[in-house]
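Action item from last meeting closed. Structure (251 res):
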């Protein structure tokens, strides 16, 4: 599998980082995890054919994780994409889809075959040679899902937005790559929303991934890269990196 970090930022304006999005390419399929603002632009920078998207998995409905969905739909229509677009997300996805697509832009329903499916906790969704399992995270009161993507014996786990969460640790156990959010620095912050570097050390020790990629990076975290990496790496032999947009990994 090839993993490309399309967007590694947050809702904070950042000229170098767009919002959440990951492209996963297997031998036969192409899956998007999240589609925040700027992700479509990153795909066009890669000269990626939008008609080749096999499925999109949306972790939750904060705008920095889903706001390019309508833009993608319109672009696929304008480029005459004839393939159905499969979209998966937490149970609210049907209400969300009706609001952003059927009501706001009803003409798109006639131009593009979008197939919406809700994710049940801990179920496995098969997309060709890719399997995607999910679990709930702890992210305020918002129903948010982490994803484990597997193909040909390899796996990656994307935490999405979460505070330290036992179900995410279990989902990530022994994965090849753990892509985990690191939204803020150590220090006082609201509980049950995001993860700090020191909190990540325990998550990584428990999950024991082969590699760790930090994403959902606020400007404060980026400005303190060396310090963040030193803290996160304290109790692991795994290689830890702060992701940047368009960075790719292969497993």
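Sequence:
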């Amino acid at each position: 599998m090839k993993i490309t970090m399309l967007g590694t930022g947050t809702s904070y304006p950042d000229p170098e980082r767009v919002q959440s999005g990951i492209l996963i390419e297997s031998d036969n399929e192409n899956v998007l995890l999240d589609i925040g603002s700027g992700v479509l632009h990153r795909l066009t920078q890669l000269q990626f054919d939008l008609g080749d998207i096999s499925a999109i998995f949306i972790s939750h409905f904060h705008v920095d994780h889903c706001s390019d969905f309508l833009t993608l739909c319109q672009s696929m229509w304008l480029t005459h994409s004839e393939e159905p677009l499969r979209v998966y997300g937490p149970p609210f996805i049907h209400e969300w889809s009706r609001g952003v697509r059927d009501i706001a832009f009803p003409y798109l329903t006639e131009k593009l075959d979008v197939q919406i499916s809700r994710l049940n906790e801990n179920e496995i969704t098969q997309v060709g040679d890719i399997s995607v399992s999910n679990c709930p995270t702890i992210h305020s009161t918002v129903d948010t899902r982490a994803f484990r993507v597997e193909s040909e014996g390899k796996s990656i786990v994307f935490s999405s937005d979460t505070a330290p969460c036992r179900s995410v640790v279990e989902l990530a156990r022994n994965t090849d790559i753990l892509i985990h959010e690191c939204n803020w620095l150590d220090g006082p912050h609201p509980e049950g929303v995001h993860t700090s570097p020191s909190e990540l050390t325990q998550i990584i020790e428990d999950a024991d991934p082969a590699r760790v990629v930090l994403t959902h990076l606020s400007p404060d975290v980026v400005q303190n890269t060396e310090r963040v990496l030193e803290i996160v790496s304290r109790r692991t032999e795994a290689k830890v990196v702060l992701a940047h947009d368009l960075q790719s990994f292969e497993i």
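Note appended to the action item: Helices lie at 39-45, 69-78, 93-103, 108-111, 166-172, 197-207, 219-223, 225-232.
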